[in-house]
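hey so i finally got around to running the thing on that chain from the lab meeting. sorry it took forever, my laptop kept dying and i had to restart like 3 times. anyway pasting the input first so we r on the same page abt which one it is
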Amino acid sequence: MSTETTSNESFNDSHVLDPAATAVSQESISAEIGENHAAYQKSLAAGVKAETQPRLDFAPYRSSLLRHPTKNLHHVDPETIELYSPAFGERDVHTLESDLTIQHNGEPIGERIVVAGRVLDGDGRPVAGQLIEVWQANAAGRYIHKRDQHPAPIDPNFTGVGRAITGKNGEYSFTTIKPAPYPWKNHHNAWRPAHIHFSLFGTDFTQRMITQMYFPGDPLFSLDPIYQAITDAEARNRLVATYDHSITSHEWATGYNWDIVLTGSNRTWMEDEEGDH
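ok and heres what got predicted. didnt touch it at all, straight out
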């Protein structure tokens, strides 16, 4: 990734609001979220099955209206791409790649944390050998990417990406810096709760699932249309990690536990691959 800017996306102009982003207030977005959730609760009372995944078309999340499929999906034979896609295995992923705090010459700024958990199937069985990639903003809420031009500092000692392979019991662990909230252009004064993106691969690159992990007690939860696009409260709660003092290290890092369930009624919410927030 690059920190270069373009003539249309200069850092000096990054505080200037996009007119399209100022057209709708947070109050309007929150009202739309409330209407959607109220309608969902009525459908539950009428016997409709609970929604464990986000709606592809969720009006308060503006870009979902442009991204979701509008035509019937068709099955395709993935054999060709599977033959030519890169292969990976335990020898391709080094243990140190799961520590996002040692990738540069100095210490990154911010609260050091450890995020650990297990990847499980719908019956609670561990999924071993699963490739997990993570990416996130830094402690100031800034990504190392040319599209991120909001006026927050870049940490030269923190890139914000890492990867690991789950162990025999489905376990994983990442050492990183706790990310901060950041603004996005869904509506006026829109801020995303602090989160870490997770990408999980199966046996090849055509088997990819993407989700986000959040931190407990974030005051932005109720205001965020991406998080609230999951209309079922229990499904939303499964995206929030738990502070775990047994993972916390003395004078080193606080710890969070977060398990990822791939299938079944308690599966972890997965997003469209094109999502970038």
